[in-house]
Amino acid sequence: MKLSLLSLAASLLLLAASSHASPLHFLLKRENALVAAVFGSVSDGCKRSLYSLAMDAEVESCLHLHDFAKTLYSVNRASESIIEPVEQFLSKQVCKKDACSADAINAAQANIADDCKDDLANNDGFNIAYVLQYVLSRYNPAREALCLQDSTHQNMTCSAQQLDLIQTTFNSNVSQSSLLKFFQTEETPLDTMLQSINATNETRSAFCNNCTYAFATTFLPYAGDDVLLNSTRLDALRSNISSICGESFLDGKMPASVMNGTAKSPSKVRAPVPSENGTVSATTPASNGALSYGRVAAATLSSVGLVPLLLAAAVATVL
């Protein structure tokens, strides 16, 4: 639905569920249907690998999944908005602390590529393993996009600002309950979201703001020709942005009011390189050969801390 950003975040959020001492455990018990919707399409072996990833000390030190869980656990009702917790998590954890090291991200990619091999090969366009792989391969631009801040909105992160816009525009809380509905849709999340945002001229024009502009500049060149965002959808996305918001939104510049809110520059993680037309070509992994960057092993992550929003932040809000 309109929540593709949050859906990604929720997906990762769920990964820390393997620890019964974690606030995630209690959070998940409250939304078992959401857990089933997110993990229902992947194998048991892949699930175990994703759980292990969430509990890895090095990964946890930079993705802060448990901090995110603690923040969300403060939300008492499944229908209550989670925008403020997301803003606090991004602004105080992900964006103000060190980025994940290249070794941590590349190791996570390798584990998913190996342990979720069949799930990736049989991808239906939107399962949790594939989403994580997709985002991990774009960790640098994803983290930067999630941490963009708009000075015209008291330096709120663009991620939270766009979620708030979605909430206001559709007059419905961005909540755990709405995430569940998002995952239960029969259409792919991206297609559903496109239909929702393009429903009216008012809805479409509402997203032509500085954050959408900045997201397009920061992340869109790395979006790639992929199952989640194939060439047809990517072309349609660029066309929509140009026709609805103006060609300037695709000029590769940053609006003056938007700045990078990260404490330090992201680590040098191997990532796809955008071609002249803005798509991402498959590249060969470094000498250790752990990953390939094509459709099947396009790496991922979800810093979910990156939360959420990554693909989402860049794609959902920009449509």
UniProtKB/TrEMBL annotation:
Residue numbers spanned by region Disordered: 261-286
Compositionally biased residues, Polar residues: 276-286
Signal peptide: 1-21
Descriptive protein name: Uncharacterized protein
Keywords: Signal
Source organism, top-level taxon: Eukaryota
